[in-house]
Design brief:
By secondary structure, this protein is mainly alpha-helical. It has 2 domains: 146 residues, Orthogonal Bundle (DNA polymerase, domain 1); 163 residues, Orthogonal Bundle (hpI Integrase, Chain A). A 3-stranded antiparallel beta sheet has the order 1-2-3, covered by helices on one side. Strands 4-5-6 form a 3-stranded antiparallel beta sheet, with helices on one face.
């Protein structure tokens, strides 16, 4: 009897250390587990990606077992492929930095102290914590794919303390100053009202246009998470939109009508804040998004209402705004009681 030809060359059936049956693809220095049931659509896609990875290996120079090699394996994986394009771009830049910093070192030799040493090379707690997060991502990937790693050393590295709400949040006075400088009908004023009233991140702001407006609402899907939201158009924003030609496809464009890239738009808007006298290093468009969420929390919005404004899929960050707003209200209420007692 003729032996049946393997329809997926390089794939073998293995049992991992937990006794679970898995399918593994091996060719030369490339090795990875294939997710999904054998022969399923998910399995075939994983197999095709693995085969493509082998074809790309001729272009790669990383020595197997190094952090460079682990990064390259991750960048060819389905986990990376499933990320949004904007997330890929940011993560790729961060991994490039990591490869330059420690790429030639064997990833299996890393310990907690080594991760913390790499974290110290970054300025600021947020950047240092990003190193820890990315290292943890890579080591978890190595464990899942059976690259000979049993424990993730980055999980034990001490995280730096940082502001849970992140970048500078615009105050009501900041907004008033900007509005006084950039009057109604100008592009900077439109940009401010769009960011403040929609909560859109800059990569989403530059894609908003009349196609997103319907029946006094504005809708969009966040590029980073694909979460969709629909918001009512409030008077401050409606006033500016009424001054925009219906023939203008996008609301915010270069002078020649060309669409902005997120980075160039961010630089342009930052320059407008400086013009307004808001010479605060982190007073950017993202701070308006946070200002909108803060306003909602201070006016009693629920966590899910704030999450909808931010186009988030859960309420973890929205909860922080609610807690902060409630803490301020309770402090004011408590001080008022103290004042009345003293009188």
């Amino acid at each position: 009897m003729r032996k049946r030809k393997n329809p997926f060359p390089g794939v073998t059936r293995v049992t991992d250390r937990h006794g679970k049956v898995r399918w593994r693809y091996r060719r030369k220095t490339h090795s990875c587990y294939l997710h999904g049931d054998y022969g399923s659509v998910e399995f075939r896609k994983a197999y095709e990606n693995a085969v493509a990875g082998i074809a790309n290996e001729k272009k790669l120079r990383a020595e197997p077992g190094t952090m460079n090699w682990l990064c390259e394996q991750y960048l060819m994986s389905i986990k990376y492929g499933n990320l949004a394009d904007s997330s890929k771009k940011v993560l790729r830049g961060e991994l490039d930095w990591l490869m330059k910093a420690v790429g030639g070192l064997p990833f299996k030799s890393f310990e907690k102290r080594h991760i913390e040493a790499v974290m110290k090379r970054k300025e600021g707690p947020a950047a240092a914590n990003k190193v820890k997060k990315n290292c943890s991502r890579l080591f978890n990937f190595a464990i899942d794919e059976g690259f000979g790693l049993e424990i993730n050393p980055a999980r034990r590295a001490v995280k730096r303390k940082e502001n849970s709400l992140g970048f500078y949040t615009w105050s009501d006075e900041d907004i008033a100053v900007f509005r006084r400088k950039h009057s109604s009908g100008t592009k900077p004023r439109l940009a401010l009202e769009l960011a403040l009233n929609t909560g859109a991140a800059r990569q989403d702001l530059v894609r908003l246009g009349w196609g997103n407006v319907k029946n006094s609402t504005i809708s969009y899907a966040r590029g980073k998470t694909t979460v969709a939201t629909t918001l009512p158009i409030l008077p401050d924003l409606q006033k500016e939109l009424d001054l925009v030609s219906r023939d203008q496809f996008l609301f915010l464009t270069h002078s020649g009508g060309r669409a902005y890239k997120a980075e160039s738009y961010g630089n342009w808007f930052k320059a407008r804040t400086v013009e307004a006298g808001l010479n605060i290093p982190s007073a950017n468009s993202h701070g308006l998004r946070k200002a909108g969420a803060t306003r909602l929390a201070e006016h009693g919005a629920t966590e899910w209402e704030i999450a909808s404004y931010l186009a988030h899929s859960d309420t973890s960050q929205a909860a922080e705004y609610v807690v902060t707003a409630n803490r301020a209200k309770m402090a004011a209420s408590g001080m008022a009681k103290l004042s009345s007692t003293e009188n």
